[in-house]
Write a structure and sequence with these properties.
Blueprint (H helix, E strand, L loop, with lengths): L6 H15 L4 H46 L1
Length: 72
């Protein structure tokens, strides 16, 4: 499990990022990171939606099989 990240840790992280990328590229890096996070969330939500649909289809098929066996 991740430890609690407080303000001092965030400041150290920010300083390291500024040293690596520079102040000028910081908005560009932040935008790219935000875009990557959005795409990741969308794809994971898409996978969740696919799993939900597949589960619903399997339940319908199972119910159909049960109704076929009980009626025949």
């Amino acid at each position: 499990m991740l430890p609690h990240i407080g303000m001092p840790e965030l400041l150290v992280l920010l300083v390291i990022i500024i040293i690596i990328f520079g102040v000028g590229r910081l908005p560009e890096v932040g935008g790219a990171l935000g875009k990557a996070i959005r795409e990741f969330r969308q794809s994971s939500e898409g996978l969740d939606e696919e799993k939900r649909k597949k589960s619903e289809e399997e339940k319908k098929e199972e119910a159909q099989k049960q109704s076929d066996t009980h009626s025949g």
